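ARCHIVE CARD
Drawer: 12
Card no.: 0347
Subject: one protein chain, sequence and derived structure
Cross-reference: see card 0346
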Amino acid sequence: MDALIADDQKSKPHGKVVFPETTLIPSAALWERNGNGPTHIGVRIVKAPKSVHNVARYLAAAALEREVIPLILSRIDYSGFEQFGFRVERVPEEPEAARTAEEEIRKFWDLAIIIDGDDIGLWTGQRNTAQVGASHGE
C-alpha cells in the first residue's frame, strides 16, 4: 500500500540530519536487551576532543532522550568529560592492555557497544585527525 501512495518517491528529510548514512548494520547487542532499564555504551577516548562541550552535549541528549548512558573509556589522564559528570574509566594506553581492560569494563557494565570518540566528533563536525591514526592503527 505504501508503494502505491508514495509512488516510489523517497521523502526528503526536514532539518539537519545528525547521523551519517552508512551501510553498517547496528549492533545486535542493542536489540537483545530487555528494555527495562537504560542501555550503556562505551565511548573510547584516546585524545581529548577539540571541543568536549559539543560532544558532551550530544552524549547528554542521548542519555536523557533515549536512556543511552555513555561510559567514557579514556586512555588519557584528563579527558574533559569529568567536568560534566560522566563516568570516566581510565584505560591503559598500551593497545593490548587497553583491549583487555575495555573487555572487562564491557562485561561489568554490560556495554551494548564501544565507539571511538572520533566517530562522535564526525557527528558534531569536529573530526580530530590526530586521533584517527591512534584509534584505527591498533
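Annotation on reverse: DSSP finds five helices and four strands in the chain. The mean pLDDT is 76.
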